Amino acid sequence: MIKKTNYSTWQLWSLVIIRVAIGWHFLYEGITKLLNPDWSSLGYLMDSKGLFEGLFHSIAANSAVLNVMDFLNVWGLILIGAGLIVGMFTRIAAISGILLLAFYYLSHPAIIGVTYAIPSEGNYLWVNKNLIELLTLWVILLFPTWKTVGVDRFLFNKK
């Protein structure tokens, strides 16, 4: 039995579809990194600009820290994606996704006059795909569809 919410059917399923689509994006990005034995975040981190570039460059400069960050990045993407898709530990997945996207955004902020070695899909001013996906996860967090459609409904049923 599906728990009754104040959402219309269209609202509920639209939010679930967005949650699953972002989950797919995270999961796919994590799996492609996992399956590529040559993948490393080294180039991405060294290409960092902006206020926090020193932090990201220092992560890249320490091979032990870089290996930990690569592991956390790959498995974070996979677990966040899987959690969002099936609606399992969705609140944790959404918050973790927000934090990961915030690091991506801070590493490569969309500011005037900054060019990156890694090509982007377009020219951005302040708002880019990482920020949009971060804000969408915030909406998903505010409208907890996993209480109605997702594994969390069964795990955290208060009956």
Reconstruct the topology from this structure.
Layout lengths: L8 H27 L6 H5 L6 H9 L1 H24 L3 H18 L21 H14 L9 H4 L4
Helix pairs in contact: 1-4, 1-6, 4-5, 5-6
Short description:
64% of the residues lie in helices and 0% in strands.
Strand content: under 5%
Roughly how many Å is the radius of gyration?
A: 17 Å
Total of domains: 1
Count of distinct strands: 0
Structural class: mainly alpha
Euclidean distance between termini CA atoms: 13 Å
Low-confidence stretches: none
Helix content: 55-70%
Q: Summarize the main sheet.
A: none
> What is the helix tally?
7
Describe what you observe in this structure:
This protein has 159 residues and is mainly alpha-helical. The protein has one domain (9-150). Helices cover 64% and strands 0% of the residues. It has seven helices and no strands. The two termini are 13 Å apart.
Spell out the key features of this protein.
mainly alpha
